[in-house]
Amino acid sequence: MVTNETTALKVAELLLQIKAIVLKPNEPFTWASGWHSPIYCDNRKTLSFPQIRTHIRQELVTAIQEKFGKPDVIAGVATGGIAHGALVAEQMGVPFIYVRSTPKGHGLTNLIEGVLNPEQSVVVIEDLISTGGSSLKAVNAIREAGCKVLGMGAIFSYDFEIAKQNFENKKCSLITLSDYNYLIKKALDTGYIDSNCLTSLQEWRDNPQVWKK
To answer: How many whole angstroms separate alpha carbon 103 and alpha carbon 87?
Structure first.
């Protein structure tokens, strides 16, 4: 759920500006899942631009405070959510942890890195939401550690229906700074794409598994 239209359009503009998001409906990308896609997103690029990095941090903090209040802990999802999560935790003045995709292969075999105590409240930070599967694994890990997940904050979401269902099924609130709908609106307004691309872009978002097959 995008919480602020002005923020959503501004973040979409910034992501397009630095090519953290690239739209190529006529020259689709192939994801690791095998899906063909008109969009490629790498929000880690935002970390290389101090002003944009700061803007995203401040907007995440504002959104978290308005939706969830101040949590005991901020958690980042490996790997994309780690840096942004640490920045948010620093501004909020709370501890930071991160959750691995799989347990560490040696030593203590940790899945959660950092200090997390039972019954603490946690907000999870992610850079990108696609289906929500990997993000919600982190939520499960934190809950299994005996903690309360207040919700998740992310920079961008493709706004897939399956993601909405997955978050609803796990009873996890999700807030995002921007999403696919606002991205397409900003891309049209700025001339990044023209209206001839709209049908194809909408078809992909509605049914990405079969788009262009």
So the answer is: 24
Decide: pTM greater than 0.85: yes
* CATH match for 5-206 among 3.30.200.20, 3.40.50.2300, 3.30.565.10, 3.40.50.2020: 3.40.50.2020
Of 72, 22, 19, residue with least CA distance to 46: 19
Distance CA 185, CA 190 (A): 9
Confidence of residue 36 (pLDDT cuts 50, 70, 90): very high
Percentage, residues of the chain above pLDDT 90: 85
CB 8: neighbour CB atoms within 10 A?
Answer: 22
Count of C-beta atoms within a 10 Å radius of residue 154: 26
Given a cut of 70, whether residue 108 has pLDDT beyond it is: no
Planar angle of CA 48, 54, 55, nearest 5 degrees: 110
Is 90 exceeded by the pLDDT of residue 66? yes
Per the document, the length of the chain is 213
Contact criterion met (CB below 8 Å) for 67 and 173:
yes
